[in-house]
Amino acid sequence: MAEQGPLLALRGVAKAFGGVNAVQDITFDVQAGESVGLVGPNGAGKTTLFNCVCGQLKNDRGSIEFEGRSLRGLPTYKRARMGIGRTYQRAEVFADMTVRDHLMVAERARSRAGRLWKDLCNMSRPTDEECEKVEGTMALVGLTELADTPVSALGLGNCRLVELARALAGEPRLLLADEPSSGLDEHETADLAAVLRIIQRDRGTAVLLVEHDLGIVAEVVDRAVVMDLGSKIAEGSFEEVMEDPVVRHAYLGQSV
Ligand SMILES: Nc1ncnc2c1ncn2[C@@H]1O[C@H](COP(=O)(O)OP(=O)(O)OP(=O)(O)O)[C@@H](O)[C@H]1O
Ligand SMILES: [Mg+2]
Predict the structure, then answer these.
(1) What integer pLDDT is reported at residue 112 of this predicted model?
(2) Residue-level pLDDT at 114
(3) What is the pLDDT of residue 93?
(4) Which residues line ligand 1 (CB under 6 A)?
(5) Is the Cβ–Cβ distance between 129 and 169 less than 8 Å?
(6) What is the pLDDT of residue 169?
(7) Which end of the chain is more exposed for a tag (fewer CB within 10 A), N or C?
(8) Contact 35/209 with Cβ under 8 angstroms?
(9) What is the DSSP string of 97-136?
(10) What is the per-residue pLDDT for 233?
(11) CA separation (Å) from 190 to 167, 196, 213?
Protein backbone atom coordinates (compact mmCIF):
# COMPACT_ATOMS: atom_id res chain seq x y z
CA MET A 1 0.00 0.00 0.00
CA ALA A 2 1.31 3.46 -0.87
CA GLU A 3 2.30 5.50 2.15
CA GLN A 4 -0.19 8.25 2.88
CA GLY A 5 1.22 11.73 2.28
CA PRO A 6 0.86 14.70 4.63
CA LEU A 7 -2.48 16.44 5.01
CA LEU A 8 -0.92 19.87 4.49
CA ALA A 9 2.45 20.35 2.80
CA LEU A 10 4.19 23.72 2.61
CA ARG A 11 7.27 23.94 0.39
CA GLY A 12 9.37 27.08 0.15
CA VAL A 13 6.42 29.38 0.81
CA ALA A 14 7.26 33.09 0.59
CA LYS A 15 5.28 36.31 0.77
CA ALA A 16 6.53 39.90 0.70
CA PHE A 17 4.74 43.19 1.28
CA GLY A 18 6.69 45.78 -0.67
CA GLY A 19 10.19 45.48 0.75
CA VAL A 20 9.17 43.43 3.80
CA ASN A 21 9.79 39.69 3.47
CA ALA A 22 6.98 38.70 5.81
CA VAL A 23 7.34 34.97 5.05
CA GLN A 24 10.49 33.44 3.58
CA ASP A 25 11.06 29.91 2.35
CA ILE A 26 8.80 28.13 4.82
CA THR A 27 8.68 24.33 4.55
CA PHE A 28 6.83 21.98 6.88
CA ASP A 29 4.05 19.38 6.92
CA VAL A 30 0.96 18.78 9.00
CA GLN A 31 -0.09 15.12 9.13
CA ALA A 32 -3.72 14.01 9.29
CA GLY A 33 -5.02 14.29 12.84
CA GLU A 34 -1.92 16.09 14.06
CA SER A 35 -1.87 19.28 16.08
CA VAL A 36 0.89 21.72 15.11
CA GLY A 37 1.65 25.03 16.81
CA LEU A 38 2.98 27.94 14.78
CA VAL A 39 4.73 30.27 17.21
CA GLY A 40 7.19 33.13 17.19
CA PRO A 41 7.64 36.72 18.33
CA ASN A 42 5.53 39.65 17.07
CA GLY A 43 5.89 40.24 13.35
CA ALA A 44 7.40 36.77 12.75
CA GLY A 45 5.04 36.18 9.82
CA LYS A 46 2.62 33.74 11.46
CA THR A 47 -0.60 35.47 10.42
CA THR A 48 0.74 36.08 6.91
CA LEU A 49 1.52 32.37 6.52
CA PHE A 50 -1.86 31.46 8.02
CA ASN A 51 -3.58 33.68 5.45
CA CYS A 52 -1.63 32.06 2.62
CA VAL A 53 -2.92 28.65 3.76
CA CYS A 54 -6.56 29.68 4.08
CA GLY A 55 -6.44 31.66 0.84
CA GLN A 56 -6.83 35.21 2.07
CA LEU A 57 -3.37 36.01 0.69
CA LYS A 58 -1.54 34.63 -2.34
CA ASN A 59 1.97 33.38 -1.65
CA ASP A 60 4.56 34.82 -4.06
CA ARG A 61 6.65 31.66 -4.18
CA GLY A 62 6.52 28.03 -3.11
CA SER A 63 3.67 25.57 -3.00
CA ILE A 64 0.92 24.71 -0.55
CA GLU A 65 -0.75 21.32 -1.02
CA PHE A 66 -3.72 19.88 0.83
CA GLU A 67 -4.18 16.11 0.53
CA GLY A 68 -1.75 16.17 -2.38
CA ARG A 69 -3.64 18.86 -4.32
CA SER A 70 -2.18 22.28 -5.00
CA LEU A 71 -4.17 25.14 -3.48
CA ARG A 72 -2.76 27.67 -5.93
CA GLY A 73 -5.41 30.07 -7.18
CA LEU A 74 -8.21 28.58 -5.08
CA PRO A 75 -10.37 31.07 -3.15
CA THR A 76 -11.01 30.63 0.57
CA TYR A 77 -14.48 29.12 0.14
CA LYS A 78 -13.16 26.39 -2.16
CA ARG A 79 -10.41 25.60 0.33
CA ALA A 80 -13.11 25.41 3.01
CA ARG A 81 -15.06 22.91 0.90
CA MET A 82 -11.93 20.83 0.50
CA GLY A 83 -11.72 20.57 4.29
CA ILE A 84 -9.76 23.58 5.52
CA GLY A 85 -11.74 25.34 8.26
CA ARG A 86 -10.68 28.49 10.02
CA THR A 87 -11.75 30.58 12.95
CA TYR A 88 -11.89 34.37 12.90
CA GLN A 89 -10.25 36.44 15.60
CA ARG A 90 -13.24 38.65 16.19
CA ALA A 91 -16.39 36.70 16.86
CA GLU A 92 -18.25 37.59 13.68
CA VAL A 93 -21.66 36.52 14.75
CA PHE A 94 -25.28 37.49 14.34
CA ALA A 95 -25.56 38.78 17.86
CA ASP A 96 -29.30 38.49 18.39
CA MET A 97 -29.46 34.85 17.41
CA THR A 98 -29.22 32.12 20.00
CA VAL A 99 -26.19 29.88 19.97
CA ARG A 100 -28.28 27.07 18.48
CA ASP A 101 -29.76 29.22 15.68
CA HIS A 102 -26.38 30.67 14.88
CA LEU A 103 -24.88 27.22 14.44
CA MET A 104 -27.93 26.12 12.45
CA VAL A 105 -27.22 28.89 9.94
CA ALA A 106 -23.63 27.67 9.66
CA GLU A 107 -24.77 24.08 9.22
CA ARG A 108 -27.28 25.04 6.53
CA ALA A 109 -24.75 27.20 4.74
CA ARG A 110 -22.64 24.08 4.46
CA SER A 111 -25.25 21.46 3.68
CA ARG A 112 -27.42 23.54 1.38
CA ALA A 113 -24.79 25.71 -0.31
CA GLY A 114 -26.62 28.15 -2.58
CA ARG A 115 -30.00 27.79 -0.93
CA LEU A 116 -29.01 29.62 2.22
CA TRP A 117 -30.75 32.92 1.58
CA LYS A 118 -33.93 31.25 0.50
CA ASP A 119 -33.81 29.25 3.70
CA LEU A 120 -33.17 32.32 5.79
CA CYS A 121 -36.15 34.10 4.26
CA ASN A 122 -38.48 31.13 4.63
CA MET A 123 -37.03 30.02 7.94
CA SER A 124 -38.08 26.54 6.87
CA ARG A 125 -37.80 23.91 9.56
CA PRO A 126 -34.43 22.28 9.93
CA THR A 127 -34.23 18.57 9.19
CA ASP A 128 -33.62 16.02 11.93
CA GLU A 129 -30.15 15.47 10.52
CA GLU A 130 -29.33 19.19 10.72
CA CYS A 131 -30.60 19.34 14.30
CA GLU A 132 -28.53 16.33 15.27
CA LYS A 133 -25.40 17.81 13.77
CA VAL A 134 -25.88 21.13 15.57
CA GLU A 135 -26.56 19.43 18.91
CA GLY A 136 -23.47 17.25 18.37
CA THR A 137 -21.25 20.24 17.63
CA MET A 138 -22.55 22.14 20.67
CA ALA A 139 -21.88 19.10 22.87
CA LEU A 140 -18.37 18.74 21.43
CA VAL A 141 -17.34 22.28 22.39
CA GLY A 142 -19.38 22.37 25.62
CA LEU A 143 -22.07 24.87 24.60
CA THR A 144 -25.15 22.70 25.17
CA GLU A 145 -26.21 24.55 28.31
CA LEU A 146 -26.01 27.86 26.46
CA ALA A 147 -27.94 26.68 23.38
CA ASP A 148 -30.87 29.06 23.94
CA THR A 149 -28.77 32.04 25.01
CA PRO A 150 -28.43 34.93 22.56
CA VAL A 151 -24.87 35.24 21.34
CA SER A 152 -24.92 38.91 22.41
CA ALA A 153 -25.22 37.79 26.04
CA LEU A 154 -22.09 35.61 25.92
CA GLY A 155 -18.69 36.56 27.25
CA LEU A 156 -15.68 36.58 24.95
CA GLY A 157 -14.61 33.06 25.95
CA ASN A 158 -17.93 31.52 24.95
CA CYS A 159 -18.03 33.63 21.76
CA ARG A 160 -14.73 32.01 20.82
CA LEU A 161 -16.30 28.60 21.40
CA VAL A 162 -19.20 29.60 19.10
CA GLU A 163 -16.61 30.58 16.49
CA LEU A 164 -14.88 27.23 16.90
CA ALA A 165 -18.19 25.38 16.67
CA ARG A 166 -19.06 27.33 13.54
CA ALA A 167 -15.76 26.36 11.92
CA LEU A 168 -16.45 22.74 12.85
CA ALA A 169 -19.85 22.76 11.12
CA GLY A 170 -17.96 22.33 7.85
CA GLU A 171 -16.38 19.15 9.27
CA PRO A 172 -12.87 20.31 8.36
CA ARG A 173 -9.97 17.85 8.17
CA LEU A 174 -7.71 20.76 9.12
CA LEU A 175 -8.70 23.52 11.53
CA LEU A 176 -6.71 26.75 11.36
CA ALA A 177 -6.90 29.03 14.38
CA ASP A 178 -5.05 32.36 14.68
CA GLU A 179 -4.66 33.55 18.27
CA PRO A 180 -7.90 31.96 19.53
CA SER A 181 -6.95 32.81 23.11
CA SER A 182 -6.38 36.55 22.61
CA GLY A 183 -8.35 38.57 25.12
CA LEU A 184 -9.34 35.53 27.17
CA ASP A 185 -8.57 35.14 30.87
CA GLU A 186 -6.61 32.19 32.25
CA HIS A 187 -9.69 30.12 32.96
CA GLU A 188 -11.23 30.72 29.52
CA THR A 189 -7.89 29.94 27.88
CA ALA A 190 -7.74 26.61 29.71
CA ASP A 191 -11.29 25.79 28.54
CA LEU A 192 -10.35 26.64 24.98
CA ALA A 193 -7.23 24.45 25.14
CA ALA A 194 -9.36 21.57 26.42
CA VAL A 195 -11.83 22.00 23.55
CA LEU A 196 -9.04 22.07 20.96
CA ARG A 197 -7.72 18.79 22.36
CA ILE A 198 -11.19 17.23 22.28
CA ILE A 199 -11.68 18.29 18.66
CA GLN A 200 -8.42 16.63 17.73
CA ARG A 201 -9.11 13.49 19.76
CA ASP A 202 -12.81 12.95 19.05
CA ARG A 203 -13.00 14.14 15.47
CA GLY A 204 -9.46 13.37 14.37
CA THR A 205 -9.26 16.94 13.08
CA ALA A 206 -5.75 18.24 12.47
CA VAL A 207 -5.10 21.65 14.03
CA LEU A 208 -2.70 24.39 12.98
CA LEU A 209 -2.62 26.74 15.93
CA VAL A 210 -1.07 30.20 15.74
CA GLU A 211 -0.58 31.45 19.30
CA HIS A 212 1.22 33.96 21.41
CA ASP A 213 0.23 32.20 24.59
CA LEU A 214 2.87 29.50 24.90
CA GLY A 215 0.92 27.90 27.75
CA ILE A 216 -1.95 26.94 25.44
CA VAL A 217 0.52 25.78 22.78
CA ALA A 218 2.25 23.51 25.30
CA GLU A 219 -1.12 22.02 26.24
CA VAL A 220 -2.49 21.48 22.76
CA VAL A 221 0.20 20.71 20.19
CA ASP A 222 2.04 17.54 19.19
CA ARG A 223 4.72 19.59 17.46
CA ALA A 224 5.73 23.22 17.09
CA VAL A 225 7.16 25.25 14.22
CA VAL A 226 8.92 28.44 15.31
CA MET A 227 9.19 31.47 13.02
CA ASP A 228 11.20 34.64 13.43
CA LEU A 229 11.47 37.54 10.97
CA GLY A 230 9.70 35.51 8.28
CA SER A 231 11.85 32.38 8.51
CA LYS A 232 11.44 29.02 10.19
CA ILE A 233 14.05 28.82 12.93
CA ALA A 234 13.07 25.56 14.65
CA GLU A 235 10.70 22.60 14.48
CA GLY A 236 10.14 19.77 16.94
CA SER A 237 8.29 18.93 20.13
CA PHE A 238 7.28 21.98 22.15
CA GLU A 239 9.86 21.17 24.84
CA GLU A 240 12.62 20.69 22.26
CA VAL A 241 12.05 23.96 20.46
CA MET A 242 11.73 25.96 23.66
CA GLU A 243 15.16 24.72 24.76
CA ASP A 244 16.73 25.63 21.44
CA PRO A 245 19.15 28.55 21.95
CA VAL A 246 18.15 30.09 18.60
CA VAL A 247 14.52 30.17 19.74
CA ARG A 248 15.44 31.56 23.14
CA HIS A 249 17.45 34.27 21.45
CA ALA A 250 14.54 35.16 19.13
CA TYR A 251 12.30 35.51 22.16
CA LEU A 252 14.81 37.60 24.14
CA GLY A 253 13.09 40.62 25.49
CA GLN A 254 9.75 38.86 25.19
CA SER A 255 8.21 36.89 28.00
CA VAL A 256 8.82 33.18 27.39
N1 LIG B 1 -0.91 43.79 4.84
C2 LIG B 1 0.36 44.08 5.14
N3 LIG B 1 1.01 45.08 4.51
C4 LIG B 1 2.31 45.35 4.80
N5 LIG B 1 3.04 44.69 5.72
C6 LIG B 1 2.44 43.68 6.37
C7 LIG B 1 1.07 43.32 6.13
N8 LIG B 1 0.75 42.28 6.93
C9 LIG B 1 1.86 42.00 7.66
N10 LIG B 1 2.86 42.85 7.32
C11 LIG B 1 4.23 42.80 7.87
O12 LIG B 1 4.71 41.48 7.71
C13 LIG B 1 5.44 41.05 8.85
C14 LIG B 1 4.78 39.80 9.43
O15 LIG B 1 3.52 40.15 9.99
P16 LIG B 1 2.50 39.09 10.58
O17 LIG B 1 1.27 39.85 10.94
O18 LIG B 1 2.38 37.96 9.64
O19 LIG B 1 3.27 38.61 11.89
P20 LIG B 1 2.73 37.76 13.12
O21 LIG B 1 3.77 36.73 13.39
O22 LIG B 1 1.36 37.29 12.87
O23 LIG B 1 2.77 38.82 14.31
P24 LIG B 1 1.83 38.92 15.63
O25 LIG B 1 2.39 37.93 16.58
O26 LIG B 1 2.05 40.33 16.08
O27 LIG B 1 0.42 38.63 15.24
C28 LIG B 1 5.47 42.25 9.80
O29 LIG B 1 6.67 42.93 9.56
C30 LIG B 1 4.27 43.07 9.37
O31 LIG B 1 4.47 44.43 9.64
MG1 LIG C 1 -0.48 37.54 13.89
Answers:
(1) 65
(2) 54
(3) 61
(4) 17, 20, 22, 40, 42-48, 212
(5) no
(6) 85
(7) N
(8) yes
(9) SBHHHHHHHHHHHHHTTT-HHHHHHHTPPPPHHHHHHHHH
(10) 96
(11) 20, 10, 11
**Hey, what's the torsion of the CAs at 48, 49, 50, 55, to 10 degrees?**
90
Ligand 2 ion local residues (Cβ < 5 A): 47
Instruction: Report which protein residue has its CA nearest ligand 1's atom 1.
Output: 17
Beta bridge partners of 162: none
Q: How far is the CA of 52 from the centre of ligand 1 (A)?
A: 12
CA distance 108 to 136: 15
Closest alpha carbon to 38 in 153, 210, 247: 210
Tell me phi and psi for residue 147, to 5 degrees. -55, -40
**All structural domains of the chain with their residue ranges:** 1-83+172-256, 93-170
pLDDT top residue among 93 and 33: 33
Contact (Cβ atoms closer than 8 angstroms) between residue 247 and residue 241: yes
- d(CA 176, CA 7) in angstroms, rounded, equals 13
Residue 22 CA: which ligand is closest?
Answer: 1
In this model, does residue 196 exceed pLDDT 60? yes
Q: What is the pLDDT of residues 86-123, one digit of tens each?
A: 987 665 666 788 999 989 888 887 776 655 555 565 55
Given a contact cutoff of 8 angstroms between Cβ atoms, the answer to whether 165 and 87 are in contact is: no
Question: In the CATH scheme, what is the code of domain 1-83+172-256?
Answer: 3.40.50.300
Mean pLDDT confidence for 206-220: 91
